[in-house]
């Protein structure tokens, strides 16, 4: 089986220890933190735009309305719940997975206190669009740091690998479910929900190649790489 050392900008499937041994830690950790803080900022922008949240944030907002939790705390709690669901599908969290579970929620609460909903609809729409575009950048940054997927991304890809169902169908099923539950709990569904759902995949696909940190010391099994291409949501 051919094995080669590569400098190509590709995502590697690494365990937690391998992630730390892969090198370029200062660059990767910095990018991970920036990406997760930016993700919290974009969550706040989209929510404060008040024209419809991203799918999971509909659920987070709904939970916050019926509990003593803030939206950021609801993000953290749901991240931990989703990580429990990783156990039966035998997914292995990485440093980025754990950091994602906490930093996004904390930063979202900070930025939700800073931003308020604009009075003018045009400003609300601009806020929503800025949130969606920057969310694509934030996603590319934290995934490109090569510290593992976020809890929700890992659940989708893990279910895909375990069931054989296409990743698009798994994603659609999960998002329809969380939007439905979140809407019943009072989360905001609207134009922003549709725009996010349609735009986030292409945005991440466009930005991710520029955000992947090269790991020159990682040895890649070329047969394995070709057999399981990376599919970006």
Features:
233 residues, mainly alpha, two-stranded antiparallel ribbon, globular, disordered C terminus
In short:
The protein is mostly helical and 233 residues long. It contains 10 helices and 2 strands; from the N terminus they run βαααααααααβα.
Describe the structure in your own words:
The chain has 233 residues and is an all-alpha fold. The protein has one domain (23-212). Helices cover 69% and strands 3% of the residues. The chain is built from 10 helices and 2 strands; from the N terminus they run E-H-H-H-H-H-H-H-H-H-E-H. A two-stranded antiparallel sheet has the order 1-2. 40% of the residues are buried. Mean pLDDT is 84; it is low at 1-8 and 220-233.
Topology, number of strands: 2
How much strand content do the residues show? Answer: under 5%
Order of helices and strands: EHHHHHHHHHEH
The whole-number mean of residue pLDDT values reads: 84
Topology, please?
Blueprint: E1 3-5, H1 16-21, H2 25-49, H3 55-65, H4 71-86, H5 95-114, H6 121-144, H7 151-163, H8 167-184, H9 191-211, E2 219-221, H10 222-227
Antiparallel strand pairs: 1-2
Helix pairs in contact: 2-5, 2-6, 3-4, 3-8, 4-5, 4-7, 6-9, 7-8
């Amino acid at each position: 089986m051919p094995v080669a050392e590569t400098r190509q900008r590709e995502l590697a499937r690494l365990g937690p220890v391998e992630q730390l041994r892969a090198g370029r830690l200062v660059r990767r950790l910095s990018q991970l933190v920036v990406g997760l803080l930016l993700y919290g900022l974009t969550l706040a922008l989209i929510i404060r735009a008040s024209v419809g949240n991203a799918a999971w944030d509909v659920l987070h907002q709904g939970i916050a309305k019926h509990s003593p939790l803030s939206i950021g705390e609801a993000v953290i709690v749901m991240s931990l719940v989703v990580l429990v669901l990783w156990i039966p599908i035998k997914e292995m969290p990485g440093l980025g997975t754990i950091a994602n579970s906490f930093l996004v929620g904390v930063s979202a609460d900070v930025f939700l206190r800073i931003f308020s909903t604009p009075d003018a609809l045009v400003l609300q729409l601009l806020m929503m669009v800025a949130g969606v575009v920057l969310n694509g950048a934030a996603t590319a940054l934290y995934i490109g740091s090569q510290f593992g997927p976020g809890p929700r991304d890992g659940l989708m890809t893990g279910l895909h690998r375990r069931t054989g169902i296409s990743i698009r169908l798994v994603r659609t099923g999960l998002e329809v479910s969380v939007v439905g539950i979140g809407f019943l709990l009072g989360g905001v569904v609207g134009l922003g929900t549709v725009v996010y759902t349609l735009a986030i995949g292409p945005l991440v696909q466009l930005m991710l190649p520029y955000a992947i940190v090269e790991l020159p010391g990682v040895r890649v099994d070329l047969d394995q790489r070709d057999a399981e291409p990376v599919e970006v949501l």
